Amino acid sequence: MFVSNGATILHADLDAFYASVEQRDDRRLRGRPVIVGGGVVLAASYEAKSRGVRTAMSGRQARALCPDAIVVPPRMKAYTAASKAVFEVFRSTTPLVEGISIDEAFLDVGGLWRIAGPPRDIAVGLRRAVLEQVGLPITVGIARTKFLAKVASAVAKPDGLLLVPPDGELDFLHPLPVERLWGVGKVTAQTLHGMGIRTVGEVAALGEPLLVSILGRASGRHLHALAHNRDPRAVDTGRRRRSIGSQQALGRRPRPPEELDAILAGTVDRLARRLRGGHRLCRTVVLRLRFADFTRVTRSHSVAEPTEHTETILRTARGLLAGAMPLIREKGLTLLGLSLSNLRDDRSVQLSLPLDAAAGPTLDTALDSVRERFGSRSVTRATQLGREVAPSVPLLPDP
């Protein structure tokens, strides 16, 4: 099992990224509660977070909690530019960078002792460079494992730096709430709380067999390992996405089936174009739904052959949506999302017979070229005319 002998893994995470970019670019917003996004909160400054505002909260609820908040529309191009600038700082610090999202990454600085000093000094320089060159605050956690480095950065937020020494790992980790463990969401947390288990140390004390009996084999073994800070993963510089997805909050008003179908079709168009742009194929389509009572369900289907074809993906997604319509009518839908998973390189898959041009991506490729040259709305479905387009969240390049 791979583990570093010292605390040489950094987890660097920009603070309230979208909101910080807005405050950087408009001095009037600095020190003020800022909400990015109107109908749904895409990001909130720490001034707004201190009042209870959270990402994915409805705009109405956020304004009730923080009436003096300044609401600004998202500027995805500005966030993409800021992310690229920050990652340039990361890569000038060390070549071993694993991007997790546009605002966070793992960095391995274990080989830089002689030329750059100890990890803490490197982290101090990294934070200073991001602030001076990009104008954004960033928090860094330092530890021996990726898991603990990420926990350290979360504890140190906002605008902080925290090193967890190897001889103090469990003293730091065990008093933390169970929600700090990767994989502990609401359901798992409720299960553990119901048994009187609230800290990571109490999870560690249960032992693996008991955790497996409570949570199942995979989750039980996973949480037992993390509770003892056993994480063998190295920083992976060639990591590619395992899935891509998009979701849209719908509010609480009822949506007729034809409107849901239009939203689904628009989502498929965007995701399929991203697939082809990254030379990827998908095998599994996953529909994600959230209802008015805040419960969630997923429905998935794997196609016979990996595909990048828009109509194949849309036909599969429509089948999943049709199967979920009785539940949607009963409970009311507040969020519709779609993910494409089981991704693979399109150059490593053998074509299957028959090789029928009408069934292939020829039309998709032609439309991609037009949209690339004249804009994403230059050619669109009739059902998308006059419809507000959900903001396209910036993504890291897929190596």
Describe this structure in words.
- With 399 residues, the chain is of the alpha+beta class.
- The protein is built from 15 helices and 13 strands.
- The protein has helices at residues 17-25, 46-49, 59-65, 76-93, 113-116, 119-134, 146-156, 169-173, 186-194, 200-206, 208-215, 217-227, 257-277, 310-331, 362-374; strands at 9-14, 34-36, 43-44, 70-72, 97-101, 104-108, 138-143, 161-163, 243-249, 280-291, 296-307, 333-341, 344-345.
- It has a five-stranded mixed beta sheet. Strands 9, 10, 11, 12 and 13 form a five-stranded antiparallel beta sheet that branches. A three-stranded mixed beta sheet has the order 3-2-4.
- A hairpin with a 4-residue loop joins strand 10 (280-291) and strand 11 (296-307).
- Helix 4 runs antiparallel to helix 6 (119-134), helix 11 crosses helix 12 and helix 13 packs antiparallel against helix 14.
- It is globular and about 60 Å long.
- It starts with 8 loop residues before the first strand and ends in a 25-residue tail after the last helix.
- The model is unreliable at 353-359 (pLDDT under 50).
